[in-house]
């Protein structure tokens, strides 16, 4: 794991980690049910690979967590106890027990424990609201459970698993370097 | 000097081992340690596995049981001490004198370290704990200058460990009830400081306001670096001005004093941060490991980037320099 | 089980920096009070203040002892400097009964009768019993403990007297750094004793104007004033033997009178609290810690 590089790079960002315009356009215009379907598949697969997440979350699994990537017209609500993930356009997003807002790349890096959430908070790159105890439990649970999205999700690509993982790794490292 | 590193989760433990820790300190997932935060710490099985993994790599494990035993529920702490000893902990880090007494009696061969929470701030106090409970090492509170540490080291009959990097307690450790005054939960009793259960952030006219138990701890302008909503690092109204009454949002960094601490006879340097993510642990431990073996001139380069990971994105030498007082 | 009427009243050490004469006259008045049984005095917060009371200490102790008070001298809470270590050693080696407020004092007093102050961490009966084996005869319980904990501690150390802070701002924290000097643009080493400008402590409010804490030199205290008048019977039943009144800048002899009258059944707690507001109105009242709540809370009877 190349932790030090990525953490430093993220902190050194001069401009916000922009998502390429065509991608933003694509995400914002794809019908929500389709986005929901993709996100569902990803969510379920990732969770199956990390059952210990719930053990560490304890009773906080009952809470509803909101994730709001800046720059995209999407908001996610995760209810670990079900488990379920729901996708909304930002206007329609429901209130959650605890929520975090920040650049998508940063949210994903946080999910994988590749960056330190506290440091992102100190630098004001992330903002958090709501039940801080629940948010802390989720952060700590994620930090321990070793998500590795390219690896975890490679299975979804079937026979193309290996090339998918390589490609995804490349996208991730470019994103984390702020070059995507 | 040994590098003593924090681990709040098994993943952070592995990172600390890989990054070059000499020893790692961690705690059980309950009120027996002073980082009793949601989602953090080790089950009995995780602790056993971590200790074994550390041992296979030549890394020691210290188990922190550094809260004070709740009257009437002492068994929780006694059992934790029994389990940590049985799991093969290199040392137990203790704060409560009755728990030290229990370990010294029940597990006489178990190495006993005195936690910073015990608040032994002078040679007579240190020797009292060495004589009474056979303590082998003591973690000094962050109230002494480097010169005072050197003077103290000459008079004590145990090893000394000092905090080198990370969170900075402004108040003498183990003697602070600020959190319980506001929230009912304290470091000494529940193992929490400014507990997350009572923290709220809200937007107010472009400012981010942090609150603890309904009290405003700070107000940060749009891009102003932020800190934890810790009581002693808040901005308050005092003597007709708005100011950081006790201390700024800032972390401790004593790398400038490394050689003086070594010359003083300090045995181990402790990194604070069991509540931080594994990415932080990996970065800080590897940077300090490099700094320890670097020349004094080359040292600042190794630690400069750590400032960005720190509270308020700034660091201080704290009480290690006299002017801080 | 102790009877409420048997509760004794202790006047605690003045936590603030008062002029030497004011400090002396305060304890002279206490010596004349029929309601005060015991007095613990001395500089606990900051060794730099020592010279303010030193010229008067011996005479004050003599006067209090002659008046029949049970007198103890408290040791410093945070001992780091050589001169502080020497002062603690000297105090422990002297004739007076000493209240230990740090671990070094515990070692120096071990083997002879002494008291334990609220700055030594006693959170359970096992610790109280351990200290009793080393010579402790009375323990003043730290501020953050609840009645449930206090009961369990007392049960764990039979034969020891126990004191709780029943009046006054509570000591919450102590630091190597002086927030009081800092607030006035000074450092601790060149403080010019500005803490003497606030004989009842310096207010700390939040940025939104909420009353929050009190700074007293290197010590941080509660903004609220602990008032346990509603709880005297309960405390006695727990086995508490002494009520400590921690001096605020008000008529403390009259405060002691109110506590004595409630203890003796001459006044209801309600009446006493109403009367207390005329004596000390500088701070809101609190009793939360005793009830297992945030220390600043007020739990009505």
UniProtKB/TrEMBL annotation, chain A:
Pfam families xref list: SCP2
Domain SCP2: 44-143
Gene3D superfamilies: SCP2 sterol-binding domain
Protein's UniProt name: Lipid carrier protein
Lineage: Bacteria, Pseudomonadati, Pseudomonadota, Alphaproteobacteria, Hyphomicrobiales
UniProtKB/TrEMBL annotation, chain B:
Binding of [4Fe-4S] cluster, residues: 169, 176, 193, 232
InterPro entries tied to this protein: Peptidase_U32, RNA/ubiquinone_mod_enzymes, UbiU
Cofactor: [4Fe-4S] cluster
Sample GO molecular function, one term: peptidase activity
Biological processes per GO annotation: proteolysis; ubiquinone biosynthetic process
Keyword hit for Iron-sulfur: yes
Domain of life: Bacteria
UniProtKB keywords: 4Fe-4S, Hydrolase, Iron, Iron-sulfur, Metal-binding, Protease, Ubiquinone biosynthesis
Pathway: Cofactor biosynthesis; ubiquinone biosynthesis
Family annotation (HAMAP family): UbiU
Described purpose of this protein according to its UniProt entry: Required for O(2)-independent ubiquinone (coenzyme Q) biosynthesis. Together with UbiV, is essential for the C6-hydroxylation reaction in the oxygen-independent ubiquinone biosynthesis pathway.
Family to which this protein belongs: Belongs to the peptidase U32 family. UbiU subfamily.
SUBUNIT field: Forms a heterodimer with UbiV.
UniProt-recorded name of the protein: Ubiquinone biosynthesis protein UbiU
Organism of origin: Tianweitania populi
Classification of source organism: Bacteria, Pseudomonadati, Pseudomonadota, Alphaproteobacteria, Hyphomicrobiales
Gene from which the chain derives: ubiU
UniProtKB/TrEMBL annotation, chain C:
Entry GO MF terms: 4 iron, 4 sulfur cluster binding; metal ion binding
Transmembrane segments: none
Positions that bind [4Fe-4S] cluster: 46, 178, 191, 195
Cofactor(s) of this protein: [4Fe-4S] cluster
Involved pathway(s): Cofactor biosynthesis; ubiquinone biosynthesis
Pfam families: Peptidase_U32
Entry keywords, A to Z: 4Fe-4S, Iron, Iron-sulfur, Metal-binding, Ubiquinone biosynthesis
UniProt cross-references to InterPro entries, sorted A to Z: Peptidase_U32, RNA/ubiquinone_mod_enzymes, UbiV
One of the GO BP terms on file: ubiquinone biosynthetic process
Highest taxon in the source lineage: Bacteria
Phosphoprotein as UniProt keyword: no
Family affiliation: Belongs to the peptidase U32 family. UbiV subfamily.
Purpose of the protein: Required for O(2)-independent ubiquinone (coenzyme Q) biosynthesis. Together with UbiU, is essential for the C6-hydroxylation reaction in the oxygen-independent ubiquinone biosynthesis pathway.
Subunit (UniProt): Forms a heterodimer with UbiU.
Protein name per Swiss-Prot or TrEMBL: Ubiquinone biosynthesis protein UbiV
Encoding gene (name): ubiV
